[in-house]
Amino acid sequence: MQKYSVFSLVKNALSNHENWDLAWKDPTPKKEYDVVIIGGGGHGLATAYYLAKEHNITNVAIIEKGWIGGGNVGRNTTIIRSNYMHDDNALFSEFGMDLWRRMSQDLNYNVMFSPRGIINLAHSDAQMNTYARRGNSMRLNGIDAVLLNREEVREIIPMADFSENVRFPIFGGLMQPSAGTARHDAVAWGYARQADDMGVDIIQNCEVIGFDVSAGKINGVRTSRGDIKAKKIGLCVAGSTNILAEKLNMTLPIETHLLQACVSEPVKPVLDKVVTFGAGHFYISQSDKGEMVMGGDLDGYNSYAQRGNLPTLQHVLTEGIAMMPFLSKLKMLRTWGGIMDMSMDGSPIIDKTHIEGLYLNCGWCYGGFKATPASGWTFAHTIAQDRVHELNAGYSLNRFNTGHLLDEKGLGTKTWIS
Amino acid sequence: MLHIKCPHCGMRSQNEFSYGGDATVKRPELGKEISDQDWDNFVYNRKSLRGKHWELWQHLSGCRQWIKVQRDTATHEIFKTLKANEEIS
Known about the structure:
By secondary structure, chain A is of the alpha/beta class. Chain A has helices spanning 6-14, 42-55, 87-107, 125-140, 150-156, 184-197, 241-247, 310-323, 372-385, 399-402; strands at 32-38, 60-63, 79-80, 118-122, 146-149, 172-176, 180-181, 201-203, 208-214, 217-223, 226-235, 254-264, 274-277, 282-286, 292-302, 332-343, 349-352, 358-362. In chain A, strands 1, 2, 8, 9, 10, 11, 17 and 18 form an eight-stranded mixed sheet that branches. In chain A, strands 5-6-4-13-14-15-12-16 form an eight-stranded mixed sheet. In chain A, strands 3-7 form a two-stranded antiparallel sheet. Chain B has a domain at 1-23 and 50-84: Folate-binding superfamily (Folate-binding fold, 2-Layer Sandwich), CATH 3.30.2270. Helix content of chain B is 9%, strand content 37%. The longest helix of chain B has 8 residues, at 36-43.
């Protein structure tokens, strides 16, 4: 593989950039692999990469119905953070933060990781108390957290509404300075390029039709491009989890819902943090191109539509304008939607299943993108060693049965309520 | 924007309704011995399929009645609506 560097850039410039290697191949599926990963999104690509890199398992195929990076890894708002209160979520996410910090070097691909900091705004004394508690929990787990008062928030984001007569005045906020954003497509492409180089077959336009299960063991998968045998299969299909689970006669604590995001027209640099509204569900950052990147609530009912509904968008942007009134002057450039695998306690599942050789990675709710490296790393470990790592031990499938829920937000089983 | 035909009030916009989830989930009968798995299925496990889906909605800003709606989760086409006490056929 050609290494990307300033020297290779100069060298290829001399030949009009016509001699770059393909970033990954387009192989025909083989009859059999050691491991098949279903889903060529961020998590699937990262899983294949860590299987090869950490566990020396390179006879691996990624099967993707569409094209790699065409699902949620290309549809999110690129926020990366580890501001969780519960130990399982905090330690998992902070492990991921370390992988994010090294990712561009590890993958020899500029993922434009920008640790610009995230501020969750508080709009009441009670919310300040909750944030103080969460911030303390984070610091106990070695995660940076700073509690800001109203004046400190005003210093950092003066464009927010600090007038006296607003419905949700800003009392302060909780900041994680090391949180940030990254270029989401580059994450998918970087993992794909390295995985391909280590021998992983990335098979696109290949839909899973069924599974070959006998005597409680997985033997392979039937696809639109032929049958593929494998003793180990990992499911990494986010919003399509329920569709594949039905083919396996499994019913999961997951509902599929639609989440929208949007960007405004590009404007001059105005916001150098990720900011979330504390009295509703709205988050915003500014991309390197200058667009304001925004998102918020689910559309509110089960959906596989991959495109959104205007009432929700209007509701979300009303919150945005309440928080930062200047947004009302901007034109909308694009809106889009992705289908989320909403779990019943708001936390993900990375686990083995009752079928031997079948592994499950799902339930990422609003937070799949930031988890990409840690999810891939722990899922690769779970598949390679046939046992969960301590980092994903809390993300077990049977926690719903045993009552060990990871209910970070205390929302309960109504996944569409935010 | 969805348009939902409330069996009590007629066709209304989605803004008047709130969602209540899968309408086929049945609470295990009171006083009967049930397994953990039955309870799990009632509380947590959902099919959430692509295609026709029976679900509960409440006409919150209208008659406030709960209703059942059969909707396609991929196209959002609504096929049928029923009163809450009417059985799904």
